User: What shape does this take?
Amino acid sequence: MVKLRLKRIGRNHTAFYRIGAMDIRNPRDGRVLEYLGAYDPQNKDSAKQLVLNSERVQAWLKRGAQPTDTVAALLKKAGIKA
Assistant: This one.
């Protein structure tokens, strides 16, 4: 099963996340099938906090990928129905 979830990158106390399609058997920071965007919670410009490739996100959702709760909230914020 494939999930859309966050992969944490960045330094200590400077979190930055990549949104990716991952197999559920892989660890949080493990192998990613495809990167779909990025989320930077510390960016003060709210328009630049979330960057998504919406076409690819829709394609993964049509294939049956399930977003995690956090990613579902981010998709809702971006106007994509999960």
Q: What stands out?
A: The chain has one domain: 2-78. The chain has a mean pLDDT of 93. The chain has three helices and five strands. The two ends are 16 Å apart (CA to CA).
